[in-house]
UniProtKB/TrEMBL annotation:
Record-linked NCBIfam families: DTMP_kinase
Gene3D superfamilies tied to this protein: P-loop containing nucleotide triphosphate hydrolases (3.40.50.300)
Family: Belongs to the thymidylate kinase family.
Reaction(s) catalysed by this chain's protein: dTMP + ATP = dTDP + ADP
InterPro entries (UniProt xref): P-loop_NTPase, Thymidylate_kin-like_dom, Thymidylate_kinase
Phylogenetic lineage: Bacteria, Pseudomonadati, Pseudomonadota, Betaproteobacteria, Burkholderiales
Name by which UniProt lists this protein: Thymidylate kinase
Enzyme class name: transferase
Record-annotated Thymidylate kinase-like domain positions: 11-195
Function description: Phosphorylation of dTMP to form dTDP in both de novo and salvage pathways of dTTP synthesis.
Entry keyword Heme: no
Chain sites annotated for binding ATP: 13-20
Organism from which the protein derives: Castellaniella hirudinis
Pfam families tied to this protein: Thymidylate_kin
Bilayer-crossing regions: none
Length: 219
């Protein structure tokens, strides 16, 4: 194990699961531990990726086009930002990554996992996140939060309940195949309870890579 090594962390979950509530807190905790951190998102993360994000979130398109554009943005992101950061010893925190394609395109849109896996292998060549935090809530909770929190919704957020139920099931299927990487977070709980759990997970990652856990840790 490399002392003070890099780490690639991703956040996943249904729209409305609440993961965005904790991103800044996670960033702060890692930086206070002395981590050089790249915080980014998908789709997006690069100038080209942000252009493709606007198309993906707001323009109707064929499912295959959607999936290919997701991976076009991801390839640019991986090659120009994420991989160079990791190779330089930085940590990377990414709001969604390839597991989202397995969940939303593979599950929600019923494309199936195999086309997504082929693209994953082609773009990432066997490399991926070290830890994935999957924020999980029942569908009704996610939909209720989404309705309360957004003035405008994108075309994914406007999908019906069956779509989101398939998406959630696909996330759970992914987590079941890789339990060492996934940490399923029960996001129905209070912010304080969730952050207590997140803090323990992050402290474990920090220790294994040669960092002391952050101090003065407000929730």
């Amino acid at each position: 194990m490399t002392t003070r090594g890099a780490c690639f962390i991703t956040l996943e979950g249904l729209d409305g699961a609440g993961k965005s509530t904790h991103i800044s807190w996670i960033e702060d905790r890692l930086r206070r531990a002395g981590v050089a951190l790249l915080s980014t998102r998908e789709p997006g993360g690069t100038p080209l990726g942000e252009t493709l994000r606007e198309l993906l979130l707001h323009r109707p398109m064929d499912l295959r086009t959607e999936t290919l554009l997701m991976f076009a943005a991801r390839n640019e992101h991986w090659r120009t930002r994420i991989l160079p950061a990791l190779e330089a010893g930085q940590w990377v925190l990414c709001d969604r990554y390839t597991d989202a394609s397995f969940a939303y395109q593979g599950g929600g849109r019923s494309l199936g996992a195999e086309p997504v896996r082929i693209l994953e292998d082609w773009v990432q060549q066997g490399r991926g996140p070290d830890c994935t935090l999957l924020f999980d809530v029942p569908l009704e909770t996610a939909r209720e939060r989404l309705a309360q929190g957004r003035a405008q919704t994108d075309r994914f957020e406007r999908e019906d309940e069956a779509f989101f139920e398939r998406t959630r099931q696909a996330y759970h299927a992914r987590a079941a195949t890789d339990p060492d990487r996934f940490r399923v977070i029960d996001a129905r709980r209070s912010i304080e309870a969730i952050r207590l759990e997140l803090g323990g997970i992050l402290d474990g990652l920090l220790r294994t890579r040669g960092y002391a856990p952050a101090t003065l840790d407000p929730v």
